[in-house]
TrEMBL record:
<dbReference type="GO" id="GO:0005868">
    <property type="term" value="C:cytoplasmic dynein complex"/>
</dbReference>
<dbReference type="GO" id="GO:0005737">
    <property type="term" value="C:cytoplasm"/>
</dbReference>
<protein>
    <submittedName>
        <fullName>Tctex-1 protein</fullName>
    </submittedName>
</protein>
<dbReference type="GO" id="GO:0007018">
    <property type="term" value="P:microtubule-based movement"/>
</dbReference>
<dbReference type="InterPro" id="IPR038586">
    <property type="entry name" value="Tctex-1-like_sf"/>
</dbReference>
<dbReference type="GO" id="GO:0045505">
    <property type="term" value="F:dynein intermediate chain binding"/>
</dbReference>
<dbReference type="Pfam" id="PF03645">
    <property type="entry name" value="Tctex-1"/>
</dbReference>
<dbReference type="InterPro" id="IPR005334">
    <property type="entry name" value="Tctex-1-like"/>
</dbReference>
Amino acid sequence: MAAAEAPEEDYPIEPSFENRFREGKARAVIEEVLAAKLTGTTYIADNASQWCREISDEVKQKLKGLNLPRYKFAVQTVIAEQRGEGMRMACRNLWDPATDGYAQATFQNETMVAITAAYATYLY
């Protein structure tokens, strides 16, 4: 009686080269959305939370449109009044540097500064 052969796995452990998260493409998406939403606007504190939500949602949808199978995205946007002060944004993540990634972009005008960060994690 011949030994049964093990079936070949067709479930990818890692994304293929062409389906990996690309920081440059993601940054371009973020810059495009920030410019479209905020160019010509003036900082209004009451509108900032709505702008953050709209920008984050649109960036997330456009990143999903890149058709990167099994990637999940989290997007964070911070908008602050421009007062000539410095601002820092930091994050810590526990992820696989071989597959997961991060991109951020900044928009600035006379009245505001906006920072959007997108995190991409690959589901194993």
